[in-house]
């Protein structure tokens, strides 16, 4: 039995600001920008620093999803609730990502950052995108996508790092644990112990997050410099404005209707948002989001189902990017696209966007597949935006993280699985790194809901 989230323990004093993860990550990013600009030859060699951190987190995501889902579902023992949560979550994802695509198309058509570039495709060096072009023409059908949700073996789901496959196996295994009743308790106790160990490793790994942000930013600035960013600055500014409009016109009203402050939520997950700006990978903050969303009062079973699914199906920022990038390339290459063509593009994006992974590099591959499927915009034109993809990916991954956090809280609210006292308290006081949701449990106790 868990202790109450608020009032049961005397709050620990906050550490000094220089020990706060948000400050450390921001400092690492600032140092990385300076290093990449003034010492580009050194900065270009720092890519492994950021990649190593991402790999460590990726290594832990599968087991964390498994432990969270099993503990949550098997503890609740309510198969009907699992189905309700899944349906509500998928409905929310489809509506919000559709709104994101529409907003992205409207904004890029109003601002027209690519008009007047008059790019001749014969002069574009497309060697850098040859691999994406080759893959783009191998379209994945709906049946292939659905079949791929089922892993060949239980081990291959974890070995391949496919979030959807891990979630599929975890849900089935959790149902099995719930079905056998009390006999599952030793397994649940073991899973809770493993979960505690995994989050300890995550806590240790996060100590090198500022170093990872430093390495990733230094490499980006060294490789692409500021010249590339300025040459396509209109596109970058348009996209940043589109993301801001998405927060203002879509996420803010959703948060308001569901009774919480979007700005306070963003402050609460501020360290994670800074980290994804530096690494351009949403996977780097997945474990921390699980912990923080539970601390915000979302029931563990809801977090365990909604957040992993959101990482596959709820790519708000990525949808904004796909819409903006596709129409920009049409404008830049003088490819005619009327509203009928753009509605077809929107329909294609609704399908292909579901295949975008948490790591930003996958977005280029999915964009290439989208252009190939629409059969209107030259796939090779992607070479035009490779230089600014990193700057744009930081923005769309940032948007994805906020969108997924909002989605989890909203679905928990719809399911009446949200502790509003905890939500108000945490958002008002802000996250205290001296305490975590896991540390609020008594030693040896099982998770909430058992």
Textual characterization of the structure:
With 450 residues, the chain is an all-alpha fold. The chain has a single domain (17-52, 89-148, 208-433), classed as Orthogonal Bundle (Proton glutamate symport protein). It has 20 helices and no strands. The termini are close together. 48% of the residues are buried.
Strand and helix map with partners:
Blueprint: H1 21-38, H2 40-43, H3 47-76, H4 79-111, H5 130-136, H6 142-148, H7 154-160, H8 163-179, H9 185-205, H10 209-231, H11 233-257, H12 262-268, H13 270-279, H14 286-295, H15 300-313, H16 316-332, H17 339-352, H18 361-374, H19 386-414, H20 420-429
Keywords: Cell membrane, Membrane, Symport, Transmembrane, Transmembrane helix, Transport
Transmembrane segments: 21-40, 52-77, 89-111, 163-181, 193-219, 239-257, 343-371, 391-414
Subcellular location: Cell membrane
Output the keywords.
70% helix; Proton glutamate symport protein; 450 residues; mainly alpha; disordered N terminus; symport
